[in-house]
Specification:
Elements lengths: L4 H14 L3 E4 L11 E5 L3 E8 L7 H12 L3 E6 L1 H10 L4 H29 L1
Parallel strand pairs: 3-4
Antiparallel strand pairs: 1-2, 2-3
Helix pairs in contact: 1-3, 1-4, 3-4
């Protein structure tokens, strides 16, 4: 089953926070295509993170924004899918097994919520 972007984001956020970091949503009005998140890791390591589902590609404006950040010396990560999220965490000293568990747990929780909402809608009809 392909994981949704929010499932992967949730697992990454938990792992970064578990290690004492922050995983913040990044919005920049007037600057379309900026990366989704900023990961601030212990030791002052800062990453701009663009999340995609497995097999999804960034848009042209997203590619351009990431390249502009790289040219300024920023750390930029494009993470597409669960395995890339796990690899990114491992490379930064975060816990692979815990991330796998949390991504799966969050996806199951969201599926239960969505099923309950669908059931409630059909009961109202």
């Amino acid at each position: 089953m392909k994981r949704r972007e929010r499932d992967i984001e949730s697992g990454l956020r938990r792992q970064v926070e578990k290690k004492g970091g922050k995983f913040m949503k990044f919005t920049s009005p007037g600057n379309d295509g900026v990366p989704d998140r900023i990961a601030v890791l212990p030791g002052g390591r800062v990453w701009f993170v663009e999340l995609k589902r497995e097999g999804e590609k960034p848009t042209a404006i997203q590619k351009w924004q990431m390249e502009q950040l790289r040219k300024m010396g920023c750390n930029v990560a494009l993470i597409a899918g669960k395995q890339e999220a796990i690899d990114w965490c491992i490379a930064r000293g975060l816990d692979r097994e815990q991330l796998e568990y949390e991504v799966a747990e969050y996806a199951e929780e969201m599926a239960r919520i969505e099923a309950g909402e669908a059931e409630a809608r059909s009961a109202r009809e």
